[in-house]
Amino acid sequence: MRSWSIPLGRIFGIEIRVHLTFLFLLVFVWSTEAATQDASAALRGLALVGIVFGSVVLHELGHALVARGAGIPAKGIILLPIGGITILDEAHAIPDPINAWKRDIRIAVAGPLVNLFIAGLFALILLAAMPGISLTTRPLLHSSALLRSIVWANLYLGLFNLLPAYPMDGGRVLRALFARRGDLVVATQRAVRIGHVFSILFMMVGILMGNWWLVMIGFFLFVGAQLEERSAVFQSVLQSVRLEEVMLTDFATLSPADTLEDALEKAVHTLQDDFPVVRGSDMVGVVSRQKILEALRAEGNGYVQAVMNRIFDVAAKQESLASAFRKLSAHNLSIIPVVDEQQLVGIVTLQNLMHSMSLLAESRKLRRAALES
């Protein structure tokens, strides 16, 4: 979320960020308008961009607030040149496999409904305040008619996002309907195929009409659908992998009575970045190599119990890798101890997860190949 984006502030506790590629859009609008007319036209062009992206922010806030009401808090909103992305904190979502599809539909349609409401409200306000105004004068969306553009920008956003072109909102509704009686991965793949049809149509029509905005929208829809499909497949794999398949069973532990210098000496001889802290047979905390170094530099030698983190979560070895990811994300942890009958039998760290996943995938491929032969 923070990569290549800058913060604008918070609305309803939700962080709003702008992707750096948005700056290229501002430069493009300014240079285009200034080259054809004058500086005031360029300023009106930037104001039009502000209207469009203000509408996008309200659109994404609609998603975020409905998701929050459904028990899924929003981490933030990122504004991109072709729209916005609401990042939901799935780690805190309440599992509800029976009604999840209904929840997903409510979240998806919230954004377009916000835009359609704003379009209708501003249309009524303009018609009441300016009886002689024509809302259908062309061009409908232009920097020379900013008030009218508020109506049409929101109307376009609302209707456009209702198209069943995944990963747009209409496509998400379609996926939720597909997932009502089937697997989420299969539902995503079906929605992606329909989304690909729309993205190809956008690109073809854009090329024939010489409209490069349509080409760009089609391209980003195609890429976005591919990424969403991969994400759904990855989540499915996470659900099928047990922690006992990927946990580290050969790992070092520390004692709360160890000095920081002794702990650092142990850390030198292992590739671990995070260590369980054990007293007898009980686990009492976790500590990272970085925390040990920082404490030594700041305060000199001391004891591990003074710097260890006493807030940690544990997992059973039969739990899924998806469950471990949720726990890591929910508490901003870097290590999950794995227990069996209250005994520490392994650890799962962010450091080893991707390495273990790639090896596990390769081993499964080899087993399948052996069975087929």
How does this structure look, described?
- This protein has 373 residues and is of the alpha/beta class.
- The protein has three domains: 1-162, no CATH class; 164-240; 244-372, CBS-domain (Roll), CATH 3.10.580.
- The chain is built from 13 helices and nine strands.
- The protein has helices at 21-36, 39-69, 100-129, 146-161, 169-178, 184-209, 212-240, 243-246, 260-268, 289-299, 304-307, 321-330, 350-372, and strands at 5-11, 14-19, 74-80, 83-88, 274-279, 282-288, 315-316, 335-340, 343-349.
- It has a four-stranded mixed beta sheet with strand order 1-2-3-4.
- The chain is elongated and about 85 Å long.
- The model has no long low-confidence stretch (mean pLDDT 82).
What's the quick description here?
The chain is an alpha/beta fold and 373 residues long. It has three domains: 162 residues, no CATH class; 77 residues; 129 residues, CBS-domain. Helices cover 59% and strands 14% of the residues.
